[in-house]
Design a protein that fits this description.
It contains 15 helices and 13 strands. The chain is of the alpha/beta class. The strands form three sheets. The protein has a six-stranded mixed β-sheet, sandwiched between helices. It is globular. Belongs to the bacterial solute-binding protein SsuA/TauA family.
Length: 333
């Protein structure tokens, strides 16, 4: 588990922010408040991209610049070092930084729930989790899918590394490894998730909705959270409020009119229109009206993130459990 711990903690806290690659965005009239957003082609960044392309930020007097990152750790590092102001990140990466005591950022929103586009895919002969005994599962270590696998095996009373071999396979290589028979099961997220599911003889055994915390708290193994640099929040509170207004306007469009978002999003993802629409429809998009309940003190969602942090400690992903509530700030909604 040492490599896993390094990737979650050291990678998130110390990854090179220089990996940020500026991506051409729209530049608005002089005088607009600048906001630097860190994103990627992952669906958690769709709202920010759509709000840029549709002019929602412009309408709020904001000039939001987009910087693309290849890894979550690079994105989080850029936020902590002040190279970007806001980003969406997988909660485990944020929890890893919290566990180190960093107070330089806050969770200010929850974009979506993507529990149906990540899961454990097996071959036809595997009917249940118990059938995985003695088999090989491929998963990318230090990922949300890794947490899902460890939790599913735990639920089934199977020991990872003893009764079931859990192998570290980079996400892009997962489809080929499954197709070649190098692994008996694959834990992946979209688009690899979709590619493997479509292979002959493959079937979905469990997705994120079978994750133990999802059942009780609605929290997946790697839920996305919208985070902002604390110094930016303190200096530009009204800007943050306008950002969130435009951001959740895009979320409402993703939820209510998914077809209308496809053309803009394919510029980011390079997916086909059909695959892009499937991606949008595969997530549950949260609107502005739902944020207060999600982020409120004592909310089921924040309690779920706390439980996720405790689970990460049990599975050796982080060293100690942070008090998650202390990093949540709903004052800008």
């Amino acid at each position: 588990m040492q490599e896993t711990r390094r990737r979650f903690i050291k990678g998130a806290a110390m990854g090179a922010a220089a990996l940020a690659l500026p991506m051409a965005g729209k530049t608005w009239a002089a005088g607009a408040q600048a906001v630097r957003y860190g994103g990627s082609a992952w669906l958690g960044h769709y709202p920010a991209w759509l709000a840029i392309q549709a002019g929602y930020f412009k309408n709020e007097g904001l000039d939001v610049g987009w910087e693309s990152f290849g890894t979550t750790s690079a994105r989080v590092s850029a936020l902590l070092s002040g190279n970007i102001d806001m980003a969406v990140t997988a909660a485990p990466a944020a929890l890893a930084v919290m566990s180190r005591g960093s107070r330089h950022f806050a969770i200010i929103g929850v974009p979506e729930n993507f529990g149906r586009v990540e899961g454990l895919i097996v071959r036809d002969g595997v009917q249940n989790l118990q059938d995985l005994k003695g088999k090989k599962i491929g998963v990318t270590f230090a990922s949300s899918a890794h947490l899902l696998v460890l939790n599913l095996l735990d639920q089934a009373g199977l020991k990872a590394g003893k009764e079931v071999a859990v192998l570290n396979v980079p996400a892009p290589e997962m489809p080929a490894a499954f197709q070649a028979g190098q692994i008996d099961a694959a834990a992946a997220w979209t688009p690899q998730f979709n590619a493997i599911r479509s292979m002959p003889g493959a079937r979905l055994l469990a997705d994120d909705t079978q994750f133990s915390l999802y059942k009780d708290y609605g929290v997946t193994p790697g839920p996305d959270v919208l985070v902002a640099r604390r110094a930016f929040l303190d200096k530009h509170p009204e800007t943050v409020k306008r950002f969130l207004k435009a951001y959740f306007r895009a979320n409402e469009q993703l939820r209510a009119q998914p077809e209308s978002t496809v053309a803009a999003l394919t510029e980011l993802t390079k997916l086909s229109a059909a695959d892009q629409l499937e991606m949008v429809k595969g997530a549950d998009w949260y609107g502005a009206s739902e944020q207060g309940a999600l982020l409120a003190p004592g909310s089921k969602y924040i309690d779920g993130l706390q439980q996720l942090a405790e689970m990460m400690v049990r599975y050796g992903q982080i060293d100690k459990t942070p008090p998650v509530r202390e990093w949540v700030d709903s004052a800008y909604l």
